[in-house]
Amino acid sequence: MLNMDKKLAKREEEGKIIRAGIVGAGQMGRGMVTQMALMKGIMPAIVSDIKFENVINAFHYAGISDEDIAVAKTLEEANLYMEQGKYVATENSDFISHANLVEVAIDVTGVPEVGVKIAIDAMNNKKHVVMMDVETDVVIGSYLKKLGDKNGVIYTGSAGDEPGAVMELFSFARAMGMEVVVMGKGKNNKLDYDCNPDTVLEEATRRKMSPRMLTSFKDGTKTMVEMTAMSNATGFVPDVIGGHGPAASPKDRCAELNEIFKLKKDGGILSRHGVVEYVNGIAPGVFVTVTTKNEEIAYQMGYHSMGPGPLWTLYRPYHLCNLETPLTVASIVIDGEPTIIPLDGPVSECITVAKRDLKAGETIDGIGGYTTYGSIATAQETYEKGYVVYALVNKNTRMKCDVKKGTLLTLDMVDLDTSTQLYQVRKEQDKMYNNGYALK
């Protein structure tokens, strides 16, 4: 991102404004629209939401006057208004993937079944895609990366999200020749595997959040999804299913982690290095823990107040989520550089855990719901044991047998909804890698 301010200013001067299309104008989309409108060389040219008033409100929050906003009911109108330099508002998310002047489509919906359609349609129309919907990425990210390559466009996760933020530290450390042994994120909501939209309603209302979103934070699902994305971009794996989740403080540069993340034989908690983790107490930051075999560099790290080693933790105490996303848009258009992309085939999977006792015939739900939560496991173990990939669970998923609370659900325990595009694309990805995952 070095010199991106100058590069964007140059685009502004030359009239080469990057036109982005944003799907979803809730809290995340609204902030992104506002931030992007304040920047040089880039604009939120077209924004859609199923609640049309969300789009208008987003533009107003950004200080855009009504005379500069045009409402598009057809694709032809959207194209015309964009050519006129208007900010286009619409209820139809398909326009983002098809509008002539859109260079980058951004999914901010948080709904995997929406995310898959946006991404595929946009890339088939030669548009870059920024996937803020990490739940989609961890299910079919490898497929989408290949589709982008096929169409000569970039598929990427977003700066600001924890996976993108920690990827910057990961690349920074490796570029300096450091060996990264752990990468991860902080968690500030105390884990509550039993929570649901009803139990968090009061807090969600107070914080102006969706109860399901807050539930997904508190029951750990979002953390597991984000760790899965980190794993799939780097090859790092969870040391144990769900991670250890130790507690630490950001004081003294997270020095506690230098001891905690030693191997067990050296007094730490890990059975191996090259792992993804989460840490209670250092949110909203991200970190990488590094080492080196070079004695001079070890001395220099101590000299720079990083501690005695052999492990040191590089900590970024913030991630600005949607506010940073426009930087990813600029990076892929100007420099051809993604922020975070999955490797060629999943390394880990976000799997499904019973939140309570479940009965045969009962319909269960997915992220932020009442019946299940997500965890992380290696892809190898997921396929060998047939764990249910979490984002494939939706309101039409039904239990085939009784299970106890805390059970890791397997494919023989559930009837998944096979009618969705997400399910069908996941089947294609599994065939692509011949991984033996037994979807019908």
Ends apart, CA distance between termini? 44 Å
Count of DSSP-assigned helices: 16
Cross-sheet strand order for the largest sheet: 3-4-2-1-5-6-7
- DSSP summary, beta strand count: 17
CATH topology of the largest domain: Rossmann fold
Taken together, the total number of domains comes to 3
Instruction: Give the rounded overall mean pLDDT.
Output: 96
Give the DSSP E fraction (strand runs of 2 or more residues): 15-25%
Q: Could you list the spans in which at least 5 consecutive residues all have pLDDT below 50?
A: none
List the quaternary state of the chains. Answer: single chain
Helix content: 25-40%
InterPro entries: DRL_cat (IPR048423), NAD(P)-bd_dom_sf (IPR036291)
Pfam families: DRL_cat (PF21135)
Protein name: NAD(P)-dependent oxidoreductase
Domain Oxidoreductase DRL-like catalytic: 160-325
Keywords for this entry:
single chain; 440 residues; alpha/beta; Rossmann fold; Type Iii Antifreeze Protein Isoform Hplc 12; 3 domains; 7-stranded parallel β-sheet; 5-stranded mixed β-sheet; 16 helices; 17 strands; globular; NAD(P)-dependent oxidoreductase; DRL_cat; NAD(P)-bd_dom_sf
